[in-house]
Design the sequence.
């Protein structure tokens, strides 16, 4: 039986492997995380595999009742580092198709894992990445519509969720992906919901009030499906309005993410949510396993407070 209570933990930016530490530290990190209460499962990126040590390693080192929400964001950004045209919303047709091919690989992997362990992967988080350097929102929207039309016709063993990232038509964009209004327009008529990531919406408007507005907009469209809580800051180690997954305040003193902000989002449309969780980063490559875990446990504690 899968565990359907608790939170989805984007633990990978806190994991020792994120900083290329050794296998011993990685094993200890996952062992101690498994002993942490209120965890339903993890959010995990899929490059070639779901973990640097492979899918089977991850499945062996996490509890059998944990679910895995797969996210395409890390491979999307890895590809874009050398080819800015890669993305579902890219007007570069060759690179858009290359991205669709990546999603086909994800579909095959997810379906294979869910066939072995029914319900193991409860959702895939997709991202609407446009062609870097092309400011045309309409071209990006058209490209995204083509991608969604194709991907939605495949047989999936889990729901699809589009994770909103800060929009391309805002100044000093970090990810600079498709604006929320256009995302909702494209998804209208498809069984694909939307995940609001707190930091990515706050970054978009340079305001801690924007995530709530985005959650309400998605809910009004009948599309709110997930909430992930990452923080951002105006200064300090985690940077100025960076998408660097800062912990909650006051654990991270400069973080703008608070229990109150989380509570506001969680109250928008709780019945609609497929999952709720955190994705937080350990900024210090030399950090101990204990400090890495303390960031995540603080995040879980804050969501528990927000849900009261």
Sequence:
């Amino acid at each position: 039986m899968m565990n359907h209570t608790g939170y989805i933990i984007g633990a990978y930016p806190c994991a020792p492997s994120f900083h290329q530490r050794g296998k011993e530290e990685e094993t200890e990190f996952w062992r101690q995380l498994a002993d942490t209460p209120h965890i339903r499962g993890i959010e995990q990126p899929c490059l070639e595999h779901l973990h640097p040590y492979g899918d089977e390693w991850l499945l062996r080192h996490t509890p059998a009742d944990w679910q895995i929400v797969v996210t395409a964001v890390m491979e999307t950004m890895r590809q874009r580092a050398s080819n800015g045209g890669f993305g579902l919303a890219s007007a570069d047709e060759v690179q858009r198709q290359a991205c669709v091919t990546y999603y086909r690989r994800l579909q095959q992997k997810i379906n294979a894992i869910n066939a072995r362990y029914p319900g193991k992967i409860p959702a895939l988080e997709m991202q609407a990445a446009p062609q870097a350097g092309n400011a045309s929102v309409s071209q990006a929207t058209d490209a995204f519509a083509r991608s969604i039309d194709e991907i939605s016709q495949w047989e999936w063993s889990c729901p699809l969720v589009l994770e909103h990232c800060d929009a391309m038509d805002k100044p000093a964009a970090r990810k600079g992906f498709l604006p929320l209004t256009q995302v909702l327009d494209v998804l209208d008529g498809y069984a694909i919901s939307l995940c609001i990531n707190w930091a990515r919406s706050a970054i978009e408007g340079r305001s801690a009030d924007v995530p709530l507005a985005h959650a309400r907009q998605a809910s009004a469209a009948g599309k709110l499906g997930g909430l992930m809580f990452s923080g951002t800051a105006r200064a300090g180690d985690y940077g100025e309005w960076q998408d660097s997954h800062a912990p909650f305040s006051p654990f991270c003193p400069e973080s703008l993410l608070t229990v109150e902000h989380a509570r506001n989002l969680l109250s928008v449309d709780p019945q609609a949510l497929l999952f709720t969780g955190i994705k937080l980063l350990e900024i210090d490559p030399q950090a101990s396993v204990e400090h890495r875990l303390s960031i995540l446990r603080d995040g879980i504690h804050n969501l528990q407070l927000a849900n009261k």
Remarks:
- The radius of gyration is 18 Å.
- The mean pLDDT is 96.
- The domain at 7-306 is CATH 3.20.20.150 (TIM Barrel).
- The chain has one domain: 7-306.
